[in-house]
Amino acid sequence: MTRTAVVLRHDATIHLGNLEPVLLEYGYTVRYVDTLTEDVRAIDPEAADLLVVLGGEMGVYEADRFPALHDEVELLRQRLTAARPVFGVCLGAQLMANALGSRVYRGPTNEIGYRAVEPTTAGADSPVRHVAGVPVFQWHSDTFDLPDTVTRLAGSPQYGNEAFAIGNWALAVQFHPEVTDEMHEVWLIASEAEVAAEGFDPAALRRDRERYSSGMQRASRAMFSEWLGGLDPQRNP
User: Fold this and answer.
1) What does the alpha-carbon distance between residue 46 and residue 162 come to, in Å, rounded to a whole number?
2) Are the CB atoms for 143 and 155 separated by under 8 Å?
3) pLDDT in tens, 161-187
4) 235 falls in which pLDDT band (50, 70, 90)?
5) Are the beta carbons of 153 and 68 closer than 8 angstroms?
6) DSSP 8-state symbol, 183
7) Is the model more confident about 158 or about 48?
8) Measuring CA to CA, which residue among 22, 82, 12 is closest to residue 54?
9) Is 42 helix (H, G, I), strand (E, B) or coil?
């Protein structure tokens, strides 16, 4: 029987990337919901087998400018209360934290590029362990307080909360495991002014992509595959 994954997308260029083939291998059909143009309130919070919440350029605290964020938080609150599977990336992780009652706010630095993320003791016994020693792609300047009801799985020198989980059915990561080389290039071109203003060299970022991307692709695939397998071990491909 086919399973469904509803994917909340905030920008057409910020999509599932290298995670989509993994979902297909595990028997999911993928349905994107573009939250800025579609009604998030129409989504049944418990119906889909998996809810994926992707990144975006806005902040959780900008819900007055982007009213759909209010609806996403409420959708997540209901789904998490029902203990239904959720995977959040960057903004998605921040929305999950907010739905669990935590504050989301500007962090100390704008992180753009490949950075090390260190699993905690709990993270070393979780799917997040696959990113240990593997620089992963970051593009964010926001952070969040860790909700009381979750387990912290990873941190970095700049940001203490890089990943958290609830049991084996909810996983949130601040970094971008989904980014392909093509997505990386599209983001750089579209955000050239931001990248320069923050003091980053696009040429250096591209060199880092050449150096680190393939390793991250393998690690992110292993992480996401293991997590999906944990939702239903009988459905491992």
Assistant:
1) 26
2) no
3) 999 999 999 999 999 999 999 999 999
4) low
5) no
6) H
7) 48
8) 12
9) helix
CA 62 → CA 91, 95, 155, distances in Å?
Answer: 12, 12, 25
Q: Which two tokens stand for residue 192?
A: 């050239």
Residue 130, token pair as written in the block: 């696959």
CA nearest to 104, candidates 91, 113, 115: 91
Distance CA(203)–CA(236), nearest Å, equals 40
Residue with tokens 């860790």: 146
Tokens 């029987």, located at residue = 1
| Beta-bridge mates of residue 9 | 34
Domains of the chain listed by start with CATH number: 3-235 (3.40.50.880)
Contact status, residue 15 vs residue 32, Cβ threshold 8 Å: yes
Q: Are 90 and 140 in contact (CB under 8 A)?
A: yes
User: Which tokens hold the place of 228?
Assistant: 């999906």
The amino acid at 234:
Q
| Closest of 66, 19, 57 to residue 216, by C-alpha | 19
- CB of 156 within 8 A of CB of 235? no
pLDDT at 234: 53
DSSP 55: -
8, 71, 72: which is closest to 34 by C-alpha?
8
Six-digit token string for 177: 């495991």
CA distance 224 to 128: 9
